[in-house]
Amino acid sequence: MQASYFAKKIIRSVLTIWLVVTFTFAALHMSGDPIEALVGDQAPAAVVAHYREKFGLDRPLWEQYVSYLHSIALGDFGLSMSDQKPATTLIAEALPNTLRLGLVSFIGGLTGGVVLGIVAALNRNRPVDRFVMSFAVFGFSMPNFFLGILLMLLFALHLRVLPSAGADTGWHLILPAITLGTHFAGTFARFTRSAMLEVMNKQYMTAARAKGAPQARRVFWHALPNAAIPILTIVGLKLGDLVAGSIVVESVFAWPGIGRLLVGAVTSRDFALVQAILIMVAITMMLTNLAVDFIYTIVDPRMRTSEGARA
């Protein structure tokens, strides 16, 4: 893959981040006055004026926008209006919990989903296949908040074997990880089954079977690597969506991560914190897509030439 291809991808990603920043800036300024949310609508005019000046909200809108872009370019994402701390500090405090929840649920969902998808493809139209696909439909269609509440009612309130909220111990991780991981597993199982079925009908799979190659070798040496491209595509999308997808789960289980922090920031119209989190999510998506494009060239060397020619 030529360097110009990656250069174009990076330029598009930077433009996407700029659009995210611009849209977020405009949407937040149209959502209402953050100073009223901070000090209340009964605060004296002098207090309101003081906080407007402190956070630069007394300047013209275009000047605020230019100043914010300049600050971002220097790595300064501003102060949180609610906590009076740098937005990056609050994100750094919440990020480890989100990574812990996200990685456990993602790795578990990916492993379980791929294995179930392979099993379903090898048993097409059999009861095992129908069971796996029923689970897949349940997994990616069930709203996270509803599944989380059901698990909480069953294991925390009825059976009393698992905690329902917080992040103090490893036991607190189980219910939110199952809630988020079920969605990932259902999605990966569905896409893995489709990709494997398409590959298993190819002529080289028929030739491998005719030569007497063991089923395990046909599946893991021939079928799975060739089915990896569509699987990697959905893995990249879901990995980039990890922070955004955890917002509901963190809120349901009172998990102190980025998602819960974003909900509180939106509620209080905390401009700096909301913008910093959304920029972080956009950068995560950008880096994930670049990583997936690079992995494509390793898994399927044919893409080096095709992508390089298009670049």
From TrEMBL:
Coiled coil: none annotated. It is a multi-pass membrane protein. It is found in: Cell membrane. CDD domains: TM_PBP2 (cd06261). Its main location: membrane. It holds the Pfam family BPD_transp_1_N. PROSITE patterns: ABC_TM1. The chain crosses the membrane at residues 12-30, 103-123, 135-159, 171-192, 219-237, 243-263, 275-299. Residues 95-296 form the ABC transmembrane type-1 domain. Keywords: Cell membrane, Membrane, Transmembrane, Transmembrane helix, Transport. InterPro entries: BPD_transp_1_N (IPR045621), MetI-like (IPR000515), MetI-like_sf (IPR035906). Belongs to the binding-protein-dependent transport system permease family. This is ABC transporter permease.
